[in-house]
Amino acid sequence: MTTNTENQGSSLDIVKWGLAIILLAAAVIGNQMYSDHSVLVRAIAVVIAFALAGFIALQTAKGKQALAFARESQIEVRKVVWPTRQEALNTTFIVLAATGILALILWGLDAVLLRIVNFITGV
Known about the structure:
mainly alpha
């Protein structure tokens, strides 16, 4: 019995995804076809079509999972301890200094290797 219920939910989800895709395609095609009408009216129609497609997509199992993931992510972002301005500046300067030092080392290594290759090849 659970298999039958899962198949019905899955087939209904397929219909919902199909309807969402059709709405998105209609918004894009309609926007192109009615290019001679007001931009404001077309923009409002596209936003409404996208909102309806999103609402329909959120009614599917995958849509509900995505919404739950977004809510959990928002909760986790609130837990992050963000660095102060001074900490961010110090870290930035450390990265810039390390990058500059590494660039100088690579430049020197390149010059040395170029001289060695020139010595060996006689160019």
